[in-house]
Amino acid sequence: MVKAGIIVIGSGIAALKTALEASKHKHVILITKSKIRHSNSYLAQGGIAAAISDRDRVSYHKKDTLEAGQRYNKEKAVEILVEEAPSVIAELIRSGMQFDHDHDGTLMLGMEGAHSERRILHSHGDSTGKYIMEHLIGCLKNSLITVVENAAAVELIIGKDDSCIGVKTLDKAGKLVTYHAERTVLATGGCGSLYHFTSNSQTVSGDGIALAFKAGAKVRDMEFIQFHPTLLFINGKAEGLVSEAVRGDGARLVTEMGRPIMEDVHAMKDLAPRHIVAQTIFSYLQRGEKVFLDISMIKDFKKRFPTVSSLCEKSGLDLKFGKIPVAPGNHFLMGGD
């Protein structure tokens, strides 16, 4: 049996940040069923939203978030999110995280779906998740946190007062290891790999939610799956994510004949909330019509979106034609707690 003050299960941004904060007060063991870089966070292309520009307001960010969630959101949670976002970004920058800047040193703020203002920070164009993860992994290496890789959590240990006092894990060799702790944090992500079309890492399969449910936790809103409108769609397969930032830079969703599909669907057109854009694309695909992202208006596309460009080229798509075939796919689990 191994003892710790805090156990964190998972290896994405939420898990790493939680572990780093907790390690200021307790001994932390971070456990992940694969490698620390195998997570949705590492794959994330899009950036982080925060109302930090002179023309933006926290109240605008709150309004956009509530409207995108059709006001089913927990309003207090939304308030905490938007109010704390600017200070969290400032803290990340102070700790050494590099976001993209204009030539004059001003932070570049992008536009994405359902946002009324430019408030999306990116790093290295469309590699934001990777670089935030690398920054946090660097911080992790300078901490006293113990990292355990290739150990799958298989059972939460519940104490007499119904509190979680630890976890049992299984390594690749089939060895069972028991960890005890004062507190256990589940930060294992959603369930994307259960879907045929998904932007998620194959390791994200709902394990944490299943563990909590098995231990007696209540889960809710599990039907709320967010589908990203634009996965690269080639030969009937989803090959990876095409960032929403591409539409934020002006790309338009069109039919094979070049007709815009979002023109009369929503006031924000191609930058409407994701569920609206995804449903619209799906309706075309159901009728047998292909949908494309017209990127012809974006200058220096390969430089602006190196991850998307590399994905397209690896899939045999020639970007000189200025169109990327897309389809919706599982992206986020919005319920669970």
Structure in words:
This protein is an alpha+beta fold. Helix content is 29%, strand content 24%. It contains 10 helices and 14 strands. The chain has helices spanning 13-22, 40-43, 58-68, 75-94, 128-141, 207-214, 245-248, 274-286, 301-304, 306-314; strands at 2-9, 28-31, 48-49, 109-110, 120-121, 146-148, 151-158, 164-171, 176-186, 225-234, 237-241, 252-255, 291-294, 323-333. The strands form 3 sheets. The protein has a 6-stranded mixed sheet with strand order 6-2-1-9-8-7. Strands 11-10-14-13-12 form a 5-stranded antiparallel sheet. A hairpin with a 2-residue loop joins β10 (225-234) and β11. α1 runs parallel beside α5 and α3 packs across α4. The longest helix has 20 residues, at 75-94. The mean pLDDT is 95.
Largest sheet composition: 6 strands, mixed
Give the helix level as a range of percent: 25-40%
Uncertain spans, ≥5 residues at pLDDT below 50? none
What is the residue-averaged pLDDT?
95
Strand arrangement across the biggest beta sheet: 6-2-1-9-8-7
Shape: globular
Give the end-to-end Cα distance, rounded to a whole number of Å.
29 Å
User: Rounded to an integer, what's the Rg over CA atoms?
Assistant: 21 Å
What is the tally of helical segments?
A: 10
Percent range for β-strand residues: 15-25%
Keywords:
337 residues, 14 strands, 6-stranded mixed beta sheet, single chain, 10 helices, alpha+beta, globular, 5-stranded antiparallel beta sheet
Summarize the structure.
This protein is of the alpha+beta class and 337 residues long.
Indicate the topology.
Blueprint: E1 2-9, H1 13-22, E2 28-31, H2 40-43, E3 48-49, H3 58-68, H4 75-94, E4 109-110, E5 120-121, H5 128-141, E6 146-148, E7 151-158, E8 164-171, E9 176-186, H6 207-214, E10 225-234, E11 237-241, H7 245-248, E12 252-255, H8 274-286, E13 291-294, H9 301-304, H10 306-314, E14 323-333
Parallel strand pairs: 1-2, 1-9, 2-6
Antiparallel strand pairs: 3-5, 4-5, 7-8, 8-9, 10-11, 10-14, 12-13, 13-14
